[in-house]
Amino acid sequence: MALSPNFHSIFATSQSSSKSASPKLPASHSSLTNLHFPNKTVRGNSYNLSRTSASDEKWRANVSFFPAFLNKGKDAKALKEELLEAIAPLDRGADATLEDQQRVDQIARKLEAVSPTKEPLKSDLLNGKWVLIYTTSKSILQTQRPKFLRSTANYQAINTDTLRAQNMDSWPFFNQVTADLTPLNARKVAVKFDSFKIGGLIPIRAPGRARGELEITYLDEELR
């Protein structure tokens, strides 16, 4: 999942219900004493949705990036169902029109307003491995490539105990990137990538400019 200054939001649904130990992520390669998180900036009209991997019950987390807005009407359960229904036919966002993106944005903002977790960085719900189910980030969707050269799935793992995070692509390239997280407040972290792994095998140190921020604006047992 590439670093993008125009990438603003991520949702994630957890398929795992166990509250087991936090995921073990690679140690930091940087000399910094504080840890950060893989970059996702909160500006513009970009959104991402993820589900946690059902194959590993040790992983679960939720992340989203939206400013909070007041919402009256539907409860969180109804809004989540509406959101998942809206993104289901969009191929993780690759097939989304501008109208589709605006609709997802509107639902997500309403959902943020009823988030049950006010301090997500202090919640165990954040820990885990999540699979992306929607984004407007073209760099993550790799829409400039033919479909057969795009990643079939994207994962993100977060460990709040060690303040480490990792983004992982699946077939056909299996690229990875790890990052340190530095808390800025109860729901926002500064992100500094420290190492890329090409094909899951060849390590490359990340450039110093590979950094950003991540704000978690909604988090429950199923969605972030």
From TrEMBL:
<feature type="region of interest" description="Disordered">
    <location>
        <begin position="15"/>
        <end position="36"/>
    </location>
</feature>
<dbReference type="InterPro" id="IPR006843">
    <property type="entry name" value="PAP/fibrillin_dom"/>
</dbReference>
<protein>
    <submittedName>
        <fullName>Plastid-lipid associated protein PAP / fibrillin family protein isoform 2</fullName>
    </submittedName>
</protein>
<comment type="similarity">
    <text>Belongs to the PAP/fibrillin family.</text>
</comment>
<dbReference type="InterPro" id="IPR039633">
    <property type="entry name" value="PAP"/>
</dbReference>
<feature type="compositionally biased region" description="Low complexity">
    <location>
        <begin position="15"/>
        <end position="32"/>
    </location>
</feature>
<dbReference type="Pfam" id="PF04755">
    <property type="entry name" value="PAP_fibrillin"/>
</dbReference>
<feature type="domain" description="Plastid lipid-associated protein/fibrillin conserved">
    <location>
        <begin position="78"/>
        <end position="224"/>
    </location>
</feature>
<keyword id="KW-0934">Plastid</keyword>
<keyword id="KW-0809">Transit peptide</keyword>
<dbReference type="GO" id="GO:0009536">
    <property type="term" value="C:plastid"/>
</dbReference>
